[in-house]
């Protein structure tokens, strides 16, 4: 048959015309007629290729059939007849592709099989051409599902292996394996053993031609398809590793072909990595997936049709990554206007109609459309009962049309169960509720698409809860508990989710007196710090605390209430300590002394100190403006990792190294409790200088606990309305401060009411308990408040009735201090380098905007002590931090600033408005620090958005970075009071005769007495003296 090289339509039509004329001029059995018919057929086929004319294709097949009949009239086949037969098979194959006619592909396959007869090889038919045509025809029949799919696959694999291992196969039989790969891609029915055989075939090809990126791609693609069946992380990672070879391996392919395979591999790797991080929610997987999507998008042109989908995927992953930590994402690098997966649900009737067609099967493209419809139903959240009924009908039909209940059924089952529950909520028909539970149970047991593994269980819990409360079914409670246990302990679920499920498990078990309550609370507590440590920086950890506020705030108090209920007072105190000031506790762990460890193993100690310092640096590497202190603010590296990603991966690596070190340290004799939570026997030492009062504020039960050093704790049980009354007091005080100025009559009335109510609620029972315990008046006492009590001035409760009618407050009877935790108080008393000599004082002042500050500055400078002054221009953040390192006492006279929702941005305003922030103070290491007087506004104030038990304010920050005692303010202070308070305070502290008592330990009494003097001034409003608080030793 003639071959033609890129002829034009005009040339083709001219040749067709000439052949038709010649054929019309010769008789039917002319010896050259078959030759010219075949030639005419080839010209018509060329015309069809250029014009897509169906008529030309039909005529070319007819001409070849006639030519074949004429050729076969001879006794034996001839080279001409064999070639005609081959082209007829090929043309039939082409027509089957165009018209999807099963008979055409059937006969094409039969003809090509015949041509593989060895006796025909002598006619010069290339074996590889025949084999390639047969494999491509079989692959297309698999797509049409018009034959036995399994047998067709088996024949394709035999042919591929035959060609792969033939002596003549010097170059890779790429085309054959490409047809096999396409057949696999186009068929959802290839599973189990047959899929393993296909993967095995691709593995053999990779072994035979290890440098072929095509075969690496085919193997990776087949492994990716297996992942869609198994949703196994192992399969996912093997597929990614294999596809990665396509990207990184050198190849002799032309650049266009190489780029095509590499781009396809990038797309598959991106999607696989995205599925993996959605399934596991591991932080390191998020970083890898995001970097893959960035790399892919950088290789796609702006008009690439795939770009919107991958841009949307990157946007969603970026939101999820930061959403894990409670960070809201306002704008992403490239975010599409809408979700490309959501479709208009007006297409639902047509989808229902297609499912009702007899013998209908779901093609891969149709399946993707159905998945988009299911996803769109989920996102739309239908509430109209008629629409819900149609959606239920659609889901039921879709389930019926699926071959079996495999992974593909999961999203359909989930949506159907949710729709049925929605129908129950509208109609209150219990039948819908029961059906919903039955369907969602099936979903819960079904291995499914790469959705979050906790999704089926979360969907099931909601209707179970509803039915349990409606019908009081104990069986439903037991099932809920079992589901929550599974969710809480499933390590494939992210730690933050497990914590929330564990909290739900604990509260449910507590409320319904279930036997698993202790296990639930312990599991939740073990997850609290794990969840927090997943966030790389202090600011992000705070975001996570706020985002998961309910779990973090309520879990410790609820567990403690259960332990108190079961007479485990000491354990309750341990629990409250474990659950408070988590950020400060973590940071304090980074600065744990390694002196004792060094005496046993100096190398291990040095390594521990280094890793702790590195972790501390990473944890505090977020600057106050929210940008990261990492070199290079742009996406960089082969996988396009951004600064956040690099920071995250660095932190994960350091945490893993630290955990390994801790295991080694705890294996040493005497170090088994190294960096573990302290026991009650250790915690009670906080009461060495006086009792410590802890208020456990819980909706389940509230109590006041008083810790004594040499006797068991006291328990003051509270009434059921204690919790509500405390919340009302906090709300009233905060609202008054927000709505009115501090010197207004409205605020004074609110504060007076709060102090009076606090005395009745807390002060009176505590004082009575002190009397029982024979705690003398004027003793030191410490408040370790929780929850809303962190906002309330416990030190100033009153007035307290007296025999002589004098108005007394709590601080008149006792010398009160505060501590964020028992451990912080114990730490503040540890032996250090302090001496009995008068301390040197660093004075930091900004008098420009504080009218009365000059008198306060003068009073400090004229003390009987060494004073270094950093005033106005000399007071910069760097000079102040440096000065803190060389003085025992520090006195600030300046403005204090708060930023709502950003506690680490709380700051002292220094020269030129430069802020010395809480985070910068925390970064400092101040070995000589003993006492700080913060004569500034808001230094011990919590903002509304803060987690109260975390004590994230400037006073606590000063205590963390080394100061043993600190005086702060609960709100804005009147600067004219500073001169009187400071003068009296320092005269008292420096002149008092208390042998052996460090000066910083004299600060609480000095503050109490100086405030009493301040109260005696005429016209002094209540809030001006209540404002001052003492923290620490």
List the defining traits of the structure above.
single chain; 1033 residues; alpha/beta; six-stranded mixed beta sheet; five-stranded mixed beta sheet; 42 helices; 14 strands; elongated
What does it look like?
This protein has 1033 residues and is an alpha/beta fold. The strands form three sheets. A six-stranded mixed beta sheet has the order 7-6-8-12-13-14, with helices on both faces. Strands 3-2-1-4-5 form a five-stranded mixed beta sheet, sandwiched between helices. A three-stranded antiparallel beta sheet has the order 9-10-11. Helix 6 packs antiparallel against helix 7 (149-164), helix 22 (495-511) packs antiparallel against helix 23 (517-533) and helix 23 (517-533) runs antiparallel to helix 25 (549-565). The longest helix is centred in the C-terminal third of the chain and has 28 residues, at 745-772. It is elongated, with a radius of gyration of 39 Å. The chain starts with 8 loop residues before the first helix and ends with a strand. The relative contact order is 0.04.
């Amino acid at each position: 048959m003639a071959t033609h090289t890129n002829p034009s339509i005009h040339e083709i039509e001219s040749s067709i015309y000439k052949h038709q004329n010649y054929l019309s001029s010769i008789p039917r059995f002319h010896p050259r007629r078959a030759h010219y018919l075949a030639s005419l057929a080839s010209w018509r086929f060329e015309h069809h290729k250029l014009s897509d004319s169906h008529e030309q294709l039909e005529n070319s097949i007819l001409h070849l059939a006639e030519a074949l009949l004429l050729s076969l009239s001879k006794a034996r086949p001839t080279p001409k007849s064999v070639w005609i037969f081959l082209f007829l098979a090929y043309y039939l194959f082409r027509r089957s592709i165009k018209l999807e006619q099963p008979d055409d592909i059937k006969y094409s396959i039969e003809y090509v099989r015949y041509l593989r007869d060895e006796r025909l090889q002598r006619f010069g038919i290339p074996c590889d051409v025949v084999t390639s045509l047969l494999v491509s025809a079989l692959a297309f029949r698999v797509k049409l599902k018009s034959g036995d799919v399994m047998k067709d696959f088996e024949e394709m694999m035999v042919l591929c292996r035959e060609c792969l291992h033939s002596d003549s196969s010097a170059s890779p039989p790429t085309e054959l394996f490409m047809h096999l790969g396409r057949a696999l891609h186009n068929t959802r029915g290839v599973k189990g053993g047959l899929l393993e055989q296909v993967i095995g075939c691709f593995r053999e090809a990779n072994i035979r031609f290890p440098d072929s990126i095509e075969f690496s791609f085919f193997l990776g693609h087949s492994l990716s398809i297996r992942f869609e069946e198994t949703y196994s992380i192992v399969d996912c990672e093997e597929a990614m590793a294999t596809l990665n070879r396509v990207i990184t391996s050198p190849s002799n392919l032309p650049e266009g072909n190489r780029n095509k395979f590499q781009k396809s591999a990038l797309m598959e790797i991106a999607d696989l990595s995205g599925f993996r991080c959605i399934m596991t929610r591991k932080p390191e997987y998020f970083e890898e997936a995001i970097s893959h999507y960035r790399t892919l998008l950088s290789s796609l042109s702006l008009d690439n049709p795939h770009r919107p989908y991958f841009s949307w995927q990157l946007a969603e992953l970026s939101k999820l990554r930061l959403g894990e930590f409670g960070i809201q994402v306002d704008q992403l690098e490239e975010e599409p206007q809408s979700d490309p997966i959501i479709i208009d649900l007006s297409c639902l009737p047509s989808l229902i109609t297609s499912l009702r067609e007899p013998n209908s099967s779901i093609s891969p493209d149709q399946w993707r459309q159905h998945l988009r419809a299911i996803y769109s139903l989920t996102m739309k959240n239908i509430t109209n009962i008629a629409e819900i009924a149609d959606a239920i009908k659609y889901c039921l039909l879709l389930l019926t049309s699926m071959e079996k209940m495999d992974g593909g059924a999961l999203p359909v089952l989930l949506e159907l169960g949710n729709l049925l529950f929605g129908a129950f909520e509208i109609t209150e028909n219990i039948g819908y509720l029961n059906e919903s539970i039955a369907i969602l149970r099936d979903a819960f047991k079904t291995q499914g698409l790469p959705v979050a593994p906790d999704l089926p269980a979360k969907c099931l819990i909601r209707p179970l809860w509803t039915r349990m409360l409606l019908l009081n079914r104990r069986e439903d409670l037991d099932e809920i508990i079992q589901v929550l246990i599974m969710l809480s302990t499933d390590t494939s679920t992210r730690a933050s989710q497990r914590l929330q499920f564990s909290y739900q498990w604990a509260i449910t078990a507590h409320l319904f007196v279930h036997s698993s309550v202790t296990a639930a609370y312990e599991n939740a507590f073990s997850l609290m710090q794990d969840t927090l440590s997943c966030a790389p920086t202090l600011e992000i950890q705070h975001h996570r605390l706020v985002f998961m506020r309910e779990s973090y705030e309520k879990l410790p108090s609820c567990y403690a209430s259960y332990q108190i209920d079961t007479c485990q007072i000491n354990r309750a105190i341990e629990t409250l300590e474990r659950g408070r000031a988590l950020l400060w506790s973590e940071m304090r762990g980074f600065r744990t002394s390694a002196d004792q460890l060094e005496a046993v193993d100096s190398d291990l100690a040095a390594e521990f100190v280094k890793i702790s310092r590195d972790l501390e640096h990473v944890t505090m590497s977020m600057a106050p403006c929210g940008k990261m202190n990492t070199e290079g603010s742009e996406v960089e590296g082969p996988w396009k990792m951004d600064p956040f990603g690099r920071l995250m991966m660095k932190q994960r690596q350091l945490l893993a190294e630290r955990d390994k070190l801790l295991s080694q340290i705890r294996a040493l004799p005497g170090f088994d409790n190294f960096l573990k939570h302290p026991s009650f026997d250790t915690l009670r030492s906080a009461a060495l200088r006086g009792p410590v009062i802890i208020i456990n504020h819980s909706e389940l039960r509230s109590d006041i606990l008083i810790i004594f050093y040499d006797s068991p704790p006291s328990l003051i049980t509270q009434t059921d309305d204690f919790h509500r009354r405390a919340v009302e007091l906090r709300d009233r005080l905060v609202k008054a401060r927000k709505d009115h100025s501090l010197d207004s009559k409205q605020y004074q009335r609110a504060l007076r009411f709060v102090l009076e109510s606090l005395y009745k609620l807390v002060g009176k029972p505590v004082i009575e308990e002190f009397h029982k315990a024979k705690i003398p008046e004027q003793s030191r006492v410490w408040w370790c408040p929780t929850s809303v009590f962190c906002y309330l001035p416990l030190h100033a409760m009153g007035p307290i009735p007296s025999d002589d009618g004098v108005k007394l407050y709590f601080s008149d009877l006792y010398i009160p201090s505060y501590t964020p935790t028992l451990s912080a108080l114990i730490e503040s008393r540890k032996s250090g380098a302090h001496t009995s000599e008068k301390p040197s004082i660093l004075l930091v002042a900004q008098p420009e905007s504080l009218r009365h500050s000059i008198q306060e500055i003068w009073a400090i400078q004229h003390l009987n002590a060494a004073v270094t002054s950093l005033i106005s221009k000399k007071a910069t953040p760097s000079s102040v931090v440096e000065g803190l390192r060389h003085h025992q006492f520090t006195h600030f006279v300046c403005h204090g600033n708060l930023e709502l929702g950003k506690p680490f941005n709380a700051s002292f305003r220094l020269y030129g408005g430069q802020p010395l922030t809480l985070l910068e103070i925390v970064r400092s290491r101040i070995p000589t620090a003993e006492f700080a007087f913060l004569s500034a506004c808001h230094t011990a104030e919590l903002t509304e958005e803060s987690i109260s038990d975390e004590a994230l304010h400037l006073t606590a920050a000063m205590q963390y970075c080394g100061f043993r005692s600190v005086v702060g303010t609960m709100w804005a202070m009147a600067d004219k009071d500073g001169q009187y308070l400071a003068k009296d305070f320092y005269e008292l502290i420096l002149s008092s005769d208390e042998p052996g008592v460090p000066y910083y330990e004299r600060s609480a009494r000095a503050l109490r007495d100086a405030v009493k003097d301040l109260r005696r001034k005429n016209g002094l409003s209540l809030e001006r003296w209540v404002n001052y608080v003492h923290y620490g030793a």
